[in-house]
Amino acid sequence: MAVVQWFPGHMAKTKRLIKENLKRVDVVIEILDARAPLASANPLLRQLTAGKPRLAVLNKDDLADPDATIRWAEEFRGQGKTLPVRVSASTRKGVDAIPKECRKLCSGASWLQRRPVRALIAGIPNAGKSTLVNAMSKKRKAEAGATPGLTRDLRRIPITSNFELFDTPGMLWHKFDDPRTGLILAGLGAVKETILPDEEVAGEILTYLSRCYPQRLKDRYKLEELPESAHDLVEAVGRARGALMSGGRVDWPRACQMVIKDLRDGRYGAVSLEWPDGRGWD
Ligand SMILES: Nc1nc2c(ncn2[C@@H]2O[C@H](COP(=O)(O)OP(=O)(O)OP(=O)(O)O)[C@@H](O)[C@H]2O)c(=O)[nH]1
Ligand SMILES: [Mg+2]
Questions:
Q1: Torsion angles phi and psi, residue 129, rounded to 5
Q2: Ligand 1 atom at minimal distance to the Cα of residue 266
Q3: Within 13 Å of residue 58, how many CA atoms lie on the same side as its CB?
Q4: Do 153 and 26 fall within a single domain?
Q5: Does 15 reside within a domain?
Q6: CA 23–ligand 2 middle distance (angstroms)
Q7: Do 120 and 220 fall within a single domain?
Q8: Positions of the chain with pLDDT under 50
């Protein structure tokens, strides 16, 4: 597996934006992807915002396996950590808890009765930061969409008379020490497509799914049996979905794109890519 390094100029700019604006905010909200609460946690963000009250939010709860999310909650509780808030920005489920939790984090502050709580929303690209801001503001104010790197600047968005948000562009960190992190983030669409080859991402994702969700994989592609190797899994999916070239050979780029798209579109049902016990990955 390749080690991913992707820290382009606009992320360096985001790092600067966050650093410069930290003194203007009271709370940092880190948006995590509920399907991968560890891989989507940004160590650089933690380092940059050390000392600020912090609220972790697991977004895209609707796409994550509820069983995995429960186990993560047990894991965090066992480690004595505050539980992240579970939300689904696209359906607005759970989002009302965010301003409440942020106010709680500021309780006792002398200014609390005089001015709004200001919270900075940050996280990896495509985590749903802008969608969440829009869900909370009840009006569409931040540009959101499936492309990582859509938000380019810091934006201040008033939510209510006592709560304000600052939306920031997505940011990664300089180097993923664990190659699995890069793969998971590529699968989730947080890393630009050209950084990791689709073949590698699709093969690894299929292998993971064949271990953790074999029946879902069989159902999705109408397969009786699941082959063992990543190569044979891609072949089987390509044939099942008719991604073929003339002569009947599997069109690999197309087959791999289908797998990645199916994952992002939730076609395997609600699946998580990380479990506290590390299952599914070598
Ligand atoms: N199913 C589901 N999709 C979501 C949810 N939240 C966001 N999305 C989708 O995820 C994609 C990325 O959303 P954005 O809000 O643009 O993400 P972002 O974190 O602002 O991305 P950048 O600005 O590029 O860093 C969009 O296609 C959203 O519709 C959610 O809770 N559930
Ligand atoms: Mg955005």
A1: -60, -50
A2: 1
A3: 24
A4: yes
A5: yes
A6: 21
A7: no
A8: none
